[in-house]
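Entry type: protein chain
Record version: 2
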Amino acid sequence: MSKTRFLIILFCMMVMAPSTPLKAQDRYQVGVCDWMVLKRQKLGAFELAKQLGCDGIELDMGSLGQREAFDNKLRDDLEAAHFKRVADSLGVKVGAMAMSGFYAQDLSKKDTYLSLVGDCFDTMDKMGGVRVAFLPLGGCGNDWTTDKQKRAIIVQRLHEIGEAAKQRGKVVGIDTPLDAAGNLRLLKEIKSQGIAIFYKFQTIVEHGWDIGKDLQKLGARNICAIHATNTDSLWLRNDPAINMPAIRQVLDKMGWSGWLFVERSRDVKMVRNVKMNYGSNVRYLKETFNSYPTPKVPLDSAGRDASYVNTIIARSQKATDALGITWTPDGENVRNIVANRYFTLNDIYAERDSLKKTDKQLAAATADSKLYRSHFGFDADLSAYLKPNEVVKVKDVMTFDVVRVTYTAYCDMIPTLTNEEKAQIMLWLIEARELAVDAESSNKKHETFKKYKGRINNYLSKRGYDIQQEREQWELRRAQE
């Protein structure tokens, strides 16, 4: 067979071969809305998105209000280039540009709509050729859907916006109060391939419609992106109104691919805790639509009793809860580091107790040696994921926050303490914490602090303080408050 004939056959086989199905991590990408995580047009949005385990963000154009233009600092080429460099360095994409200002501004009355959209398209190009823009119609109210005159104005303007988007190789996703049938009629009226639906689960839930059926009726080609959350109340994983695995099956069957953005679904009991709320929702979406990344730090649970492991995991999670990172990839690694430390301590003390039966001196020496060698490794492991003050926070959680409670008590009890005396008290409490964090039980931790409290009391007595009298006066002051 000639070489030319072989190459022709090979080419035909490649053309005729069935296309490889998209993997989940390629088909679905998960991001957060920068304005909802309190990072509107802030560089910190990219770092936060990475911490949360996102693939990218929905980057807002800036506030609008009664201005003629968005408060868009990315209009500046140097600023936009800086944002792009940071995003690229972190491996965080801009999945969509949002014109969230139109949540409060009426498109039918905003005569600068074309220049506003043009500004958005320019910014999308600066951020690496972003394809999808988000345009909510919330500022139009709901009457436009039945008010023929107002609807005609909106349809005409959306047609112009769509044609402008098409010329730039982009699509503008609109957010409407309509179901699939209503959105299909609207798209037919707009008559532009540059307009699609930026689908929103919250809208469907609020109207009592079925998300799966609505998605299927609307069709994959009419959905450019999805706000995959409900209103603020519960995390997605706890929300009975949204059956995410069933939605995943529907989207798979439809062959849809694109971005799933977390807009809301914050737990109202902790609505201001950005990392916990968005970390939980991002993780749930990633678990449902993709393979969530395996933690880099494996849990040393092999061969251990399952109930004991679960107890240690719950105990360790208190540290990541305190840091607000429990539902993030880094949070899982930190939790495993803390849990593994508990496992290590358990192993050290179990070995000590076994050696005690034959040689108490050897048992104590062996335990002390292993505690010393492993103590600094624990700090180093945590430092790979946490800042110094966060490492301290983990140790405070592991030692029941005794340092802060005790230091505050001394300062309250003896208001006349000098800065030098306060500093000495804190130094001893920190030293106590370093020992207590390696103690074998909660009782032993408290015993460690008790010894150092005795040292502090002796120190203060030598400085002329009557500790008993100071304590009695302190208790009297508190009783009068």
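Comment: Residues 301 and 309 are 7 Å apart (CA to CA).
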